Amino acid sequence: MAAMDDLSLRAANPADLDAVLAFWKVAAEGTSISDDGDGVARLVERDPDALILAEREGALVGTVIAGFDGWRCHLYRLAVHPDQRRRGVGGALLAAAEERFVALGGRRADAMVLDRNTSAHHAWRAAGYEAEPQWSRWVKHLTG
User: How buried is 98 (Cβ within 10 angstroms: 0-12 exposed, 13-18 middle, 19+ buried)?
Assistant: First the structure.
């Protein structure tokens, strides 16, 4: 992965999973049904390059999941530590995700962004993303 000044990006590995889950409790907005060790382990096992980590001085400062199913490019869990926001971490993570998608043949990326997370809306817009109000997310939980 890329490096930006003192920021380094790399794919997560199984040894990172506990740190990632703890990080999301501090830096991510909301939780997901798959925010557990088994869920993230399955992601890393199935697609080892999908979970991208940003680190500064060895400390985790940001994450993004860049999932590609062979047809669509999906972005999840763009999270930046509150002390590291507005320092290029999110932009670097999105650039790395987009590079991954292009290399895989992806044509369009979409992101899951909570409506109530208005501070994130600014970051997504700055990176060139736009909300598509004609779409709604429909969800069915498959497990209890």
Answer: middle
Amino acid of residue 117: N
Q: Which of 100, 110, 103 is nearest to 134 (CA)?
A: 110
Interval 119-136 mean pLDDT: 89
Beta bridge partners of 63: 53, 79
Structure tokens at 108: 């369009």
pLDDT tens readout for residues 46-55: 999 999 999 9
Closest CA to 47 of 24, 25, 76, 18: 76
Largest CA distance in the chain: 44
Note the pTM of the prediction, 2 decimals: 0.90
Nearest to 57 by CA among 23, 17, 8: 8
Closest CA to 113 of 104, 105, 124: 124
Q: Cβ neighbours of residue 93 under 8 Å, at least 6 residues apart?
A: 9, 52, 54, 62, 63, 64, 78, 80
- Look up residue 106 and give its two tokens: 């992806």
Name the one residue in this structure whose structure tokens are 């909570």. Answer: 114
